Amino acid sequence: MRKVEFYGWDVGAKKISFTKLLRDKGNLTLKDAKNVNTRIMNGNENVVLEFEEESVAKLIVEESTNLGFKCRLID
Prior knowledge:
The protein has 3 helices and 3 strands; from the N terminus they run βααβαβ. The protein is α+β, with helices and mostly antiparallel strands. The protein has one domain: CATH 3.30.1390. A 3-stranded antiparallel sheet has the order 2-1-3, with helices on one face. The longest helix has 13 residues, at about 30-40. The protein is globular. The model has no long low-confidence stretch (mean pLDDT about 95).
């Protein structure tokens, strides 16, 4: 298992594409993906998601960064 920590976002972040990424690659439900998105955009807390495969976690970090979200792999 590998964890990804989301800790912020850049102006112009692509919220809809990010939600779709979490649904398609991260296997989250629409409700859960929107909830994660809202929590990150509100900036009140860091959000940590856990993924079964390291390759999926790395893909999420790479694509999320390209969409304007600040995140990193954590242990």
